[in-house]
Amino acid sequence: MIRGAIEQVTHNRITGWIWSPDVDLAGRTVLAFLDMACIGAGKVDGFRGDLKAAGLGSGRAGFSFDLTYRNPAEAPRVVVKLEGSDAVLIQGGSRV
User: Is the pLDDT of residue 96 over 70?
Assistant: First the structure.
């Protein structure tokens, strides 16, 4: 099982977290997509005290990285995928 959230998407940056009780995701790569285009990538390496306090491992589950895409109105359509996996994070309020 993988848990996580996209917490903020701006025209040039995305932040959130991803965690699994089954495997340590710290250091893994996450990719941001807009439709089929990869618009950014980063590592799961940010310490999150709130996640540690909630019992989600060491708390090293945060990500924050730059994005490159043209139209800021498309920000709600950005999703995050864990590289090498089928796991996808969608934004709250998104329609699937």
Answer: no
